[in-house]
Prior knowledge:
Number of helices of chain A: 4
Order of helices and strands of chain A: HHHH
Low-confidence stretches of chain A: none
Distance between the termini of chain A: 46 Å
Strand content of chain A: under 5%
Largest sheet of chain B: 2 strands, antiparallel
Radius of gyration of chain A: 20 Å
Oligomer: heterodimer
Distance between the termini of chain B: 84 Å
Largest sheet of chain A: none
Number of strands of chain A: 0
Helix content of chain A: over 70%
Number of strands of chain B: 2
Amino acid sequence: MDQNSILIDEKKKQVINKITGILIDEMSKKNVNQELGQEIAAYILNQSKNIKDDKSLNDFLKQLAEKYSIFKLYFVNSSLENQIKKTDEEKITNIKEQLSKLANFKSQ
Amino acid sequence: MAEAQFTPEAAKAVVGVVAHPEVAVTGTTAADRILEAARGKHLAGQSEDSLKVISGEVVPYTEKDVERVLLWNLSSERDATTGEKKDPTNTNETQRFTDSKKLVESAREFIETGVIDSTLRIPILNFLVRNSPAVGDIIRATASAGGNVNDFVDGLMKTPGFREDLRTLFIERLNPTKRLTQEQTVKNLELDIANLQAQLGIEVTQVQIDAARTELDTAKAALIPHTADLLQLQSKTVRYQELTDEMSEIKREMRKYEGQGRPLEAQKIALLTEKGSLNAATDAARITAIDTEIKNIEKNQAYANYTTRKAEITEHTGLTSEIATLQITLEPFQHEITKKQDSLNALLEKQKSNIIPQKKAEVEAQINKKRGDLADAKTLLEAEMMKFYQEVTHMGQDAMEKHLNSAFASLKTMWKEEATKQAAKDTTEEGKRAALAVEKVQNLWKTKTTKGGLTFYKPDKNKAKTILDEAFKAGGGENIAVYLETKRAAELGITTEEHTALKEKLKDPDFRKVQSEGLAKQALADYLLAGGRLNKDLVNSLATTTFGKALISEGEAALQKHKDQIGKGLISDGKVGEFMKGNWWKFGIGIIALLILLGIMSAVR
């Protein structure tokens, strides 16, 4: 198993753990009845098998949130977090590139 | 002698380990149990397992949980140290425990993997043959014709919904917090009785005292043959005591006269020795002289004192061993007498603290009362164990009963909804009246009962069959319409106005067809729900009449849609038409499959 697979498995595990917690909480609060809970759990077990990479993980979460509203908030927060992380990474890359250009300019 | 003493401590020992406080059976539902187990697994980081519990893929209890609840409810054996329940030793309990464990393992296997084994199947088959009018005849006919009954039962078990019904019962009936409520009552009563007996146990009776006296007399009698020894021992002991008391004086005097006494003693011995060697005839003068000297010595006060004291010391020394010899002979007899005397004394002392007769009577009455309560509690406990055993071992058949009933009930609801929807289209007063009439006509095959001011209508299979037979006549549902038109309002259980509205509405061909067939379908559903038999006659009617054929066509459509969900024993390859050819029971299998399927599918729409 390569590094990427280990990483995605770990992410998948965290996501499943989180959404299981949400499902249990909502069932405890009686916002989700046993029948619906059964359906959601079966859906998660079945669909999570297709998670292979970041994209399929995101697709899985998106579809889950679209199908069952109890996961919407988690999906939105998770997407925002990813977006912020991505933006930060882009900014860092830009700054690195500018610094590199500046260094090249000085040495000329 | 008094019997072994009963004390509260001894009572506890007699009763054994006092049961731990039992957790009463809580009113938690299967849903609560599932959620609790799912939460536990989630907290342990086993989220996928948690989802499996929620989705129904697995039962929420571990094998250990289940074994524990079986032990708690089927065994009366406890570990003396920990108080935990352990495997039963009683034959009946062992049998129940083993049966239950086997069935539970089979049920779990079926729920989690879909595998059906004979342990789970056989009770369901027996139940269906004995108690299910819907499939009993079909199974019997299948078996007589050499058909595969197991496949049929497996097919029923694989119809959608049965697994879930079984899982729900598994969760409810094997709830790990389930305990026998009477067990603590039994233990408490046993302890109460032992404590009360402890109060009676310290009483000393006159019989016990008389017995102790007799034993003492016997011990004394055993000493009589040794009276001479006893007297000797007594006189020697007295003499020994006297000499002991005077010994210091004796020794002092002996020492005082020893200076004079010892030489005189030696002289006397020498004289006596010489005298012994002399000849009385020839040495008479010397003998006379020696006698005179000896007399003179003996007259000497110092000599007399010395020899007397010396003899007393010798006597004292001799008495020690003489007394010891006598004591060795007499001691066992004397010891026995002392022991018996002590016992008697102890009893006499205890007798002083005996409870008074009135108190004794009260305690005895309490014991008798508690014994009665204990017998009742034990009976209830046994009944509780039996009930639990039955609940566990009947899980499969109860799930099947529920499954069939809910399928028929859903079928009835679905058919009713179809008819009601059609009847509700006409929102005029007349239309509403006609719809009400159709509703009320359904009471024709029900028995009216009144309870607490409320009226109930219970389906009657025989009455339902009468209506159903109308539909089975040539013409099918149309016969029902004619029946409604030709009967009087009172015979149909409706008002004249409602009858008029109904007859008017029956002129609408759509209403006529849907409502008349709807009534026949309701009668069929109620017939099955009320325990009507799906026998050869009914199967023939369903297979050959217009109404029956229409029902089968409806069922076939549903079957083709969901054939993957049905076991092969119920329908082969979904080809109902072909399957239904031949023996009536094959047809019956097809029909029951269709009815169950229609009901189940209507419930999950």
